[in-house]
Amino acid sequence: MVTECLRIQSSARRQSRLAWLFGQDPVLPDARPWYRGALGELEVARTLRALGPEWTVLRCTDPAAEAPDLLLGPAGAYTVAVKNHSRQRVWVGPAELLVNGHRTNHLQDARHHARRLSTQLGVIVTPIVAIVDPATLALKPGADGVEVLAASQLGRYLSRRKPRFGPVPVPAGWEAYVPGDARVEGRIARLKVEVDAAWRRRVGWIALAVGIVTILTFAAMLGA
């Protein structure tokens, strides 16, 4: 996601002063889905790097599988599916996860991958769905074995798990890797600063417009 976001964004031209002033999104339309995913990917990468050498982060060697990362460590085996729902309302119930009131397949997909790996490894694999920067995250008890949490809480969650079993062999079709790249992370971080600043300018203009309309409406009512 990070690489594809930067590849598409590399063709972006410098914004005009007017576009900058009115808060036009600096991310190209084709890059926006990749940008949202990249933010989540990098946030989780920083968390996973901080876990320590006793943890191993694995990724599936088949990109078509769209499998989440697999974590193996003293507290057990976990899949981590990163979902970027920045500034969106997330509600989690026993059987579904809603984003702004719309159903998703996040829980079903997480269970599917975890069960498949549990069979392959011969140990319990706990599925985790890490939500990046939600506006709200409402959790109802009993999400049927899936741990749903904010991505910022992932490190704390894993560090508090008690040791469960010894080393687990790396399954076939998976490889260990070190998440993240400092140079790439820096480029995404700079882009995020621009995106957030543009968003604040847009909000400012909207607030100004609402204020003007409110004043004019109030003035018209007084003059009636």
Summarize the helices and strands and which ones pair or pack.
Elements: H1 2-9, H2 17-21, H3 32-49, E1 56-60, E2 69-73, E3 76-84, E4 89-92, E5 97-99, E6 102-103, H4 106-121, E7 125-132, E8 136-139, E9 147-150, H5 154-159, E10 174-176, H6 182-223
Parallel strand pairs: 3-7, 4-8, 7-9
Antiparallel strand pairs: 1-2, 1-10, 2-3, 4-5, 5-6
Helix pairs in contact: 1-3
Structure description:
The chain is of the alpha/beta class and 224 residues long. The chain has 6 helices and 10 strands. A 6-stranded mixed β-sheet has the order 9-7-3-2-1-10. A 4-stranded mixed β-sheet has the order 6-5-4-8, with no helix packed on it. Strand 4 (89-92) and strand 5 form a beta hairpin. Helix 1 crosses helix 3. The protein is globular and about 75 Å long. The model has no long low-confidence stretch (mean pLDDT 88).
- Report the sheet with the most strands, covering strand number, pairing sense and barrel closure: 6 strands, mixed
Q: Which regions have little confidence, pLDDT < 50, spanning 5+ residues?
A: none
The arrangement of helices and strands along the chain is: HHHEEEEEEHEEEHEH
Radius of gyration: 21 Å
- State mean pLDDT (0 to 100 scale): 88
Percent of residues in beta strands: 15-25%
Give the CA-CA distance, first to last residue.
57 Å
| Strand segment tally | 10
Global morphology: globular
Helical segment count = 6
Derived from helix and strand composition plus strand pairing, the structural class reads: alpha/beta
Strand order of the largest sheet: 9-7-3-2-1-10
Number of domains: 2
Approximate helicity band: 40-55%
